[in-house]
Design goal:
The chain is an alpha/beta fold. 38% of the residues lie in helices and 11% in strands. It contains nine helices and five strands. Strands 1-2-5 form a three-stranded parallel beta sheet, with helices on one face. It has a two-stranded antiparallel ribbon with strand order 3-4. The two termini are 28 Å apart.
Length: 201
């Protein structure tokens, strides 16, 4: 798209753009990091907001609250803790204190007055399509043990396509590229700790 955009600019104005900039948030922030890592000649400046750095594991762990709500009945506060295996090993980061549950720990009240968990559609469709490979799979039945196994499966899947983990931006810097990246600490979906540890991945 970048190459085509520059070609259109050249065709219309008769000259190439002097400077090119990229601005993206969440998945777009991830794409900004990918640009700097893999295609360092595309842009002069990149604003990578709230980057979903490690997509395949982050989006798998976004299902954690749904799993907790279905296994515990109704206990969203457990989601403040990091997702863990049945043996207590951390899988990814939980939300930080002060963030709300409005995106990932969703419930609905049924006609009979009981509450039911509602899956976050992006992570739920990831489970059904990429991990179970069955679009109609009922993810409400996932146990804690199965969640741990699925997380391991997610980590091993499609590394190059989904993971933007290389913190070496030296080629982008060498050609004069500039980047700004920021992440709000109250983010309740893309965990800010993932961005914090990007340089050590």
């Amino acid at each position: 798209m970048t190459v085509v955009g520059k070609a259109v600019t050249m065709s219309f104005f008769g000259k190439s753009p002097k400077y090119s900039y990229f601005n993206g948030c969440s998945n777009g922030g991830r794409e900004g990091l990918m640009e700097a890592q893999r295609y360092c000649d595309d842009y002069n400046g990149i604003l990578a907001d709230t980057p979903a750095v490690y997509w395949k594991i982050f989006i798998a762990e976004a299902q954690w609250s749904f799993v907790v709500l279905n296994n515990e009945g109704y206990n969203p506060f457990q989601y403040l803790e990091d997702p863990v295996t049945t043996t207590g090993n951390n899988l990814w980061f939980g939300i930080l204190p002060g963030a709300n549950f409005s995106t990932v720990a969703i419930t609905t009240t049924n006609p009979n007055g009981t509450n039911s968990a509602v899956a976050f559609e992006i992570s739920d469709s990831w489970y059904r399509s990429f991990l179970f490979k069955e679009v109609n799979y009922n993810t409400a039945n996932i146990t804690y043990a199965e969640f741990g196994r699925l997380s391991t499966k997610a980590i091993k899947s499609s590394t190059r396509l989904w993971a933007q983990l290389n913190p070496d931006l030296s080629a982008f810097k060498a050609r004069g590229g500039k980047m700004i990246s920021w992440h709000g600490l109250a983010d309740n979906l893309v965990m800010p700790n993932g961005t914090m540890q990007y340089s050590t991945m």
